[in-house]
Amino acid sequence: MIRLLRSLTSCQSSSRKYHLLFRHFSADTDHTSLQELHPGDDLAVTRALQLLQSPEDTWNRDELKTLLLPENESSKSSVKRLCFIASNIQSADRTLGFLNFVRTSSSEEHVLSLVRSACERVLTTAASEPHSEEKLYALYNVAREKGIPLTAKATTHLLCRFGQAEMIDELVSVFHEIDPEVKNTKVCNAYLRGLFKSRKAREALKVLDEMLERDSELPPSDITGEIVFSALLRREYTETVTEDEIAELVMKFGRHGIFPDSIKLSKLITRLSKSGKIEKAWDFLQEIFRLGGPVEAGLCNALLSGFGWANDINKMNKLLRKMKEMNVEPNIVTFGILINHLCKFRRLDDALEVFKQMNGEGNDGISICVKPDAVIYNTLINGLCKVGRQQEGLELLEKMKLQSGCSPTTVTYNCLIDNYCKSGEIERARALFDQMSEEGLVPNEITLNILVDGMSKNGRINSAVQLLREMKVIGLTPSAKIYTSLIYAFCAVNNIAKAMELFDEMSNNSGIAPDAITYYTLISGLAQAGRLDDANRVTLKLKEVGFSLDIACYNTLISCFCKKNKTNDAYNLFKEMESAGVKPDTVTYNTLIAHFSKHKDFRKACELMELMQREGHTPTVVTCGALIHAHCLNGEVEEAMKIFEQMRSFSSRIPPNTIIYNILIDSLCKKGEVEQAASLMDDMIGRKVRPNTNTFNALLRGLQGKNLLEKALKLMDLMTEQACKPDYITMEVLTEWLSAVGQLEKLKRFLKGSTLMARLNEDEDTEASLYTIASRQSKHKKYFQDPGH
Known about the structure:
By secondary structure, the chain is mainly alpha-helical. The protein is 69% helix and 0% strand. α9 runs antiparallel to α10 (168-177), α24 runs antiparallel to α25 and α38 (674-686) runs antiparallel to α39.
């Protein structure tokens, strides 16, 4: 006996990890200790365990059967004995073999129940071990091979573990191989969870179709709904399953009395609304109410926001009435949404009416007493100020102060100060700033930025700087944005020295590092002031601190270099853009093309235009106009006309404008080709491109050179029809010409109603007055030379 017990102890030591597995189940009612066995069973159990240590195919099955299932023994004793043995076999595989032996050796119901329960233990215990998925699947296959049926609990553990590990093949295999009688709602839930984790939404929906049938044997539970809707409302499923499909699923679950929580329902309503299915969202909400789903303000608020985005005020009101019908009381969020959207669409009177409803003062049957909070006050005050109703905003501010528990905030004052600054009322803005401080509200960076920006833009730059100094004294640190606003303002008035002083203060003293926008602002200001060397130095500093020029900065510098005729510098910057990864845009190309065209380098200009098109940019009217103007200045009107013909071709997407017509008409007239110039004007009017006074002046000058008086008189009539007012250049041409041929009366009729005619009426000597007025134009001849002005 002692030898047998020692043998048993040795076996138990070698299988410690399995003991630990089974020890987890020591609280189970069918888990048995040696002390609980029937007297005399210890020898039988010890002998059975000794036999079971050998390979399965060498077991003495007859002896085992005699030891385990003796005749004329109570079922209770047999079960206890089997439980103890199953819990102490050194191998999970052999445990399953042992259970199979028991299953095939007895048809007693209690024995079969024991086999299933013990198999469940083996699998669930293995499932509790970390990183045991492969072992678990192997055990499952052994159980299948040995014909040991799984319980629902064991199946659930298997599916949960495979789902968590995203072992999709194993997951699907287990689910489809289990006995139909084992499959229940919990098993399906574990399977669904695993499918969704592996992003197999379509396969999950097929399982759901079976569960959601009206008389399904696997009806969904609340847990099913939580699994499904938690997954489908995540972002990764937005392209896999549509909002309409999710809404239909909600309806099917609802027929089983199961609904997602209000947060998930609100999220779905929001998604329907944002995807343009606002009517679907409205129908969906009503169906939720009809099926007995949660009737909460949160769901209505989600749809209310949707109607607000769609600017459908009527539906917003309809929803509010529906809420009243369903006894859903609007909350502070409901009113906040309504007021916010009404303010956005400038319907301030309606917003104020809703505000009255909150205080129980409404007159349309939707009055309810809900105290407005600071957010609602701020929304209304901001909305009123944006439509120029600052005084009403101030009145609301005073009303806000009287309401208990709702004091004005820094945001409240920022709204008012911002709008007064934008309307140019800087004194009122500053007064509000002082009032804010008196009431103990600390201005923040936004407050300071609003005031500094407003003062700078309204010619109060020095006051803005003084305010900056005051704020620093009280410990408010200005941001890079505030300094940038001041630098921009000083650059705009060409006070570059002050702009540089602020930039240096920012870099060296304030401890605030200039950001990229600060650099861009200063570089642009220096370039436009013609201080290109300084602009280059700041650009180098920008690169040293790790920033790169943006497209706007490159364009400004290139434009300024072109104006200074620093062609190489401009072109080098253009090449630098490529290496810096900044793609030139249409403005970049147009600037360079105009520059090279002006300097008669048409080869380079054409190269740039070809490159522009290769890079996917379509030449604009500015591009073509630059080339046309340059060719005309160079006397190459034929080349200019070729570009013009391409522009007005049927396939062209760049129709010529008034300036281009003017350049060509003027150039043709100077060459004496007046008929072609007149034809261009006819084409211009036919294409509904409106001629201006410069157009007529150029053609009148050409007609004068050819002495084509009749055509000039007709052109004067056309000028009147086109409502183009004559200027001093028109007077210079017509006075000299018409006085020489005795047609001053026609000139007076032509000028009737114009400001020039009023001057003529003041002078008795009409002809002398005409010459006097015309002579004043001599200083404007340069203006006339540029018909595109």
